[in-house]
Amino acid sequence: MTKERDKLSMSPEEVRTLCRNGSLTGPTSGFAKGRVQANMMIVPREHAFDFLLFCQRNPKPCPLVEVLEPGQFAPRCAEGGDVRTDLPGYRVFENGRLIREVGDIGEYWRDDLVTFLIGCSFSFESALIEGGIPLRHVDAGKNVAMYKTNIPCWSAGQFNGNMVVSMRPVKSGHVARAVEISGRFPQVHGAPVHIGHPGLIGITDLSSPDFGDAIPIFDDELPVFWACGVTPQYVAELSRIPFCISHSPGKMLVTDLTTS
Amino acid sequence: MTKERDKLSMSPEEVRTLCRNGSLTGPTSGFAKGRVQANMMIVPREHAFDFLLFCQRNPKPCPLVEVLEPGQFAPRCAEGGDVRTDLPGYRVFENGRLIREVGDIGEYWRDDLVTFLIGCSFSFESALIEGGIPLRHVDAGKNVAMYKTNIPCWSAGQFNGNMVVSMRPVKSGHVARAVEISGRFPQVHGAPVHIGHPGLIGITDLSSPDFGDAIPIFDDELPVFWACGVTPQYVAELSRIPFCISHSPGKMLVTDLTTS
Question: Distance, in angstroms, between A166 CA and closest chain B CA?
Fold first, then answer.
């Protein structure tokens, strides 16, 4: 319990330092309370316009926190930080295929790489909890359940695919409040994209999520679906561009930005 | 007066057709009431990532309405439209120098050109007027006064420069309401960037605007400054990229989108 409190009260810089020296290799959920955590995608400059356009056209699943210049690795939103070392884990892809999972990407760095930092739902989750809406996956210490849908994204160049959503069970009586609270965070996915009928967005079996952990839904609850920051990575994989790097699931960049 | 009403009640498609067949060569202000009008910048693909990044980093002066794929000229926001012909006038630049002002850009079109449509203040101006805040430049049939400032934009690649602002005199008692009303339009510049002291943002002489017409300010009024969609064009010129095209001042693309 002391340990949990320690995580929560750490500064973003402390979390990034732990990642950099190899002491933190697990998920960043629960660290540095109140700070924005970011998904990361790194693509070569040759593909950066199309990927930026994809994000601009699909702001709900791809809310941009920051885009760095080609070759730059020091983000404005994390003072003294380095995107090559300051996340707990990275995934390296070639032609859409995962080739390695690593703790830092120094050996893969190139001057033409463009880093995209993309908002993640950890920010609105704490607002939901504070608003009296418990989140089962958080209470159970699990990852949120995520699903591929039939909701098309607006394509850009070769980046093309359907939206990935995260699902949280919400008591029927709390659904309206969950919409209102998350709607206040347009920078991190905003209001839900669907409520109640998974089949209508192409999800056939809630007990088999495509990413994350299965989370049970009780009789007095509805499944509520939010646009998910896994979408840009999923679409980048589908595109089979020769090379890209993402953060490992749940292992985010902890930024200096506050969620409020 | 009938003519003015005709302009207001035209459909966006009718306005675009008038442009295409050469019947409308003047400003689009006052046409197709309630429709979003867009500033336009066209840059080669080689510079498109940096320019998109510049817009993404400076959303107040550069609120993106739509970005087209390289070589595409049919925008989603204007059905059946063509950005090469459907504006009343265009400016063609080489190395940051204006080389020609033309009525269509068919002869300049290339497969690598990327079109950016950027929000313009015509949208919130009608909301201000409806909110009981008269606009002197509109009443006088003049262009809004625009000034270069010392407010730096966040640069991206070679796109680098200060913000251009538009100025509207507002009665002191109406300033708060003007902020509230324009703040409801984050897609078109949003709330003012400065109120009251032009010297503090590097404007030395309000009677000599850098673009548009001089507009007098009365004793019971304050000058109110909004981020201006001329900024991206000004910055593109400063960058001296080999080739770019913009709309001619005041001669916008009238889209199908409604301002509400």
Answer: 26
